[in-house]
Amino acid sequence: MYQLGGLVVTLVNGLLGLILWRRLRAAFPRHAALISGLCAAGLLLAALPALLMAAASFSGLRALQRHAPEPLALIAMGAQVGLLLYGLLLGLVTLASAAVRALRRLQPPRNAGPSTDVQTATNAQASAGAQADSAARDIRVPAEVEARPEAIDERRRRLVVGATWALPAAAVAVSMGGVLASRQRPAVVRLALPVRRELTSLHGVTIAQLSDVHVGSFMDAERLDELRDAMNALRADIHVVTGDLLDHHVSQLELSARLLRGLRPARGQLFFCMGNHEYIAARSASVGTIVKGLEEAGAQVLVDEAREVRIGGNRLWMGAIDYPSRARPGEPARRPTRDGLDRALGQMRDDGAPRVLLSHHPGTFRTARELPFDLMLSGHTHGGQISLGRIGDYALTPMLPAGLYHNGHYEHGGRRLHVNAGAGGWLPVRINCPPEITLVELVPA
Length: 445
Fold this sequence. Notes:
single chain, 14 strands, 445 residues
């Protein structure tokens, strides 16, 4: 599957590279050799990730991350995103131009529907014009006048040339800016969770959420230390990690455990729910090995279960469900989503205390939103990593073109969902979607 995806992206890269090369050569004919060399070098750099994936599946992409110098790997991945972004911009411009031309063709002539008198006068003018044209053909035009070239519209030519280089330049600038943005300190997204006024011990209690770190995917020890320090700087009472701490191999458990041991929740409790990448990493060992390593690092790994968290004379409930997927060979069978929800929520007493539910996949909210809980914390989507905004519940992102619950806060019938944009990513590029830490504060209702 990965090899097929790499092959498709490689073919798209070649087509976009050819289009860009031809447009630049036509716009700058005097520099054809230089343009050819730059296009070839740029295409090779941009296509490197897809070529490696087409040749060696996902392990080829991992080889780029492991063995290439990090700046080269980051630039190559950013260039790949930039080339695809150029294709998207070119497609939008082409569609807009086609729409304008179609509208112009549909517009009626300005003098359509004239009166009879006007039509008669028009016919007379046309007849006179035809006679004048016939007479003009009898007049010999000097050869030097006939050979004179048509005047070039310099203003239009400058506009075309500018558009030719501006689109790829904008795509490269945006994608490389996205590479830098992906390495920035996480943004803190604050969220208020109303609780009953009589539960005074809970007022002001905070929960910090970290999600989708993907240790090993451009996430080294130095970057993990930055995430640890950012979490601890919030001085939150409780820490939660909503899955995908590891990326794909059990060898990443050591750095993952190091991060967890460095977290310092004020009340000493750290909760964890399983993501799909914990199960991917377990294929190189076992699910039990992954869970044991996380628990030894101080995390309470909740799988379709809930725990009571006492604070002063009050309590809150913290639960989590397993990643909603059918087990693969060698993995333990996992419960259907609804069964996991019933099991976890069934362990939370309906006593007025707030009920927080961790679920790596936000799609669980579709099933859970009619059930009794107050807030679900999720991740998985990385916010799409390239965000074009949001209309209602629909996030606009080319990475996740369909579906709901991609990023931010959602509410349905009093049930709340927050989707964390993640700290890591599939690609080291983030555009209008910075790495995130969520800080939930319990406030009087």
